[in-house]
UniProtKB/TrEMBL annotation:
<comment type="similarity">
    <text>Belongs to the oxygen-dependent FAD-linked oxidoreductase family.</text>
</comment>
<feature type="domain" description="FAD-binding PCMH-type">
    <location>
        <begin position="33"/>
        <end position="201"/>
    </location>
</feature>
<dbReference type="InterPro" id="IPR016169">
    <property type="entry name" value="FAD-bd_PCMH_sub2"/>
</dbReference>
<protein>
    <submittedName>
        <fullName>FAD-binding oxidoreductase</fullName>
    </submittedName>
</protein>
<dbReference type="InterPro" id="IPR006094">
    <property type="entry name" value="Oxid_FAD_bind_N"/>
</dbReference>
<keyword id="KW-0560">Oxidoreductase</keyword>
<dbReference type="InterPro" id="IPR016166">
    <property type="entry name" value="FAD-bd_PCMH"/>
</dbReference>
<keyword id="KW-0285">Flavoprotein</keyword>
<dbReference type="InterPro" id="IPR050416">
    <property type="entry name" value="FAD-linked_Oxidoreductase"/>
</dbReference>
<dbReference type="InterPro" id="IPR036318">
    <property type="entry name" value="FAD-bd_PCMH-like_sf"/>
</dbReference>
<dbReference type="Pfam" id="PF01565">
    <property type="entry name" value="FAD_binding_4"/>
</dbReference>
<dbReference type="InterPro" id="IPR016167">
    <property type="entry name" value="FAD-bd_PCMH_sub1"/>
</dbReference>
<keyword id="KW-0274">FAD</keyword>
Amino acid sequence: MTFDELRGALPGRVLLPGDEGFENAARPWTLTVVQPVAAVVHAADAYDVAAVVQYARGAGVPVVTQPTGHGAAGGVADAILLRTRQLDTIEIDPARRVARVGAGTSWGRVQAAAGAHGLTGLAGSNPAVGVTGYTVGGGMSWFSRKHGWASDAVRAFEIVDAEGLRRRVTAQDDPDLFWALRGGSGDFAVVTALEFDLFPAPELFGGRVLWPATRIREVFEAFQEITATAPDELTVWFQRLQIPDAPPMVGMDAVYLGDPDQGRTLLARLDAIGDPIIDKRGVFGAAHIGAITAEPTDPSPSLSRAEQLTELGDAVIKTLIDEPVAPLANLQIRHLGGALAEHRADGGARGPIAEPYLLYCLGLGLPHLAEAVKARRTAIVDALSGQISGGKPFTFLTPDEKASAAFDSATLTRLRELKSARDPHGVIRGNYPVLG
Ligand SMILES: Cc1cc2nc3c(=O)[nH]c(=O)nc-3n(C[C@H](O)[C@H](O)[C@H](O)COP(=O)(O)OP(=O)(O)OC[C@H]3O[C@@H](n4cnc5c(N)ncnc54)[C@H](O)[C@@H]3O)c2cc1C
């Protein structure tokens, strides 16, 4: 079968180079990544997904599944780019507190549906991020200090395997694959739907508070104090912002999963700083967590870098507090710990992260800025060599990094063995292949 014949065989759309709309369809959310793929397929349903994998297997062409391209990493030349956005069903069972969602769904819609029942999924900061890519990479949520990795909340995956066969994967049916897909990446199967636990969240308290950058020492001290004693229900991120055409700012984002009055008390330390530029703390529902950081949802030329920090000592203060943010746009420190650090006997490949903080640097890869942004990222990492462990959450890997940075050696070995056993012809290609 040729690509043209594939086009005739599928209800979904197949776009080839030269077709109208091909370039747009091949472009990822992360615009700094170029994707010279051989074809783009917009799958209409799980049968289309199976047909594409079967075709790819026969033709010796890899399949790259990418609903949004938030995690695009390159390495896709001549592959079939499988778009799953049309697999977008959402079913919420409030009594069992379980969601079943199609693999093309983004978090914003899931949170809106769950929030209507006073429930939440283990969503992260951005409503446009796809549930599946986030979850198979582990998924670090606002609620992960309390409830763990999003991947460990999964009950079942519906998949197409590397042979092109559709099946359901649970802890009972296929414990190895179930383990690998829970945080070990999308390198093992194409997920068509997933079923995961929801958690009670009738009301949340939190929001963003910003001050002029001149208040940075006071804000950072408050961040250190709050995170030193925060219960697992409270998650706080420290933010330095250098938004184009705006003065530099420093701030904190917070979410408390519990009684709003208790949340207000836990964050009262921020009142002692005084005189914020904005203070958006308030009561809100799970559907609105994306509004806290108000990150861009449209495609962006972002260049990022994440590092797990072992402490917030003098070197961190000198490098991240005393130096200007520019040419980066954002320096963020996320408080980890809680359930993220706990080993779960029934957990998936993600496993615990012991480091208490995550550093995230973000800049824009625009032509006049890209080199300066990359140089600053490197300078920060060099200056903090004594405080960074080298480990990464899988979902925060960047195109110049490898999957091996996200796993301990025993986990990586098991993932590699499974990949070789289940996909010996390399039909399925994750964004950071475990054999890479
Ligand atoms: C603005 C922004 C905010 C973010 N915030 C957070 C956060 O708070 N917490 C966090 O943990 N991460 C966060 N991330 C990282 C994000 O979770 C990863 O980039 C994730 O890979 C995105 O998944 P996606 O499906 O949207 O992206 P895509 O690029 O479309 O997919 C990424 C990869 O996921 C796998 N995948 C996707 N769909 C399937 C499928 N159906 N079957 C098998 N594999 C599949 C594939 O390997 C694919 O290459 C953020 C990223 C951005 C850009």
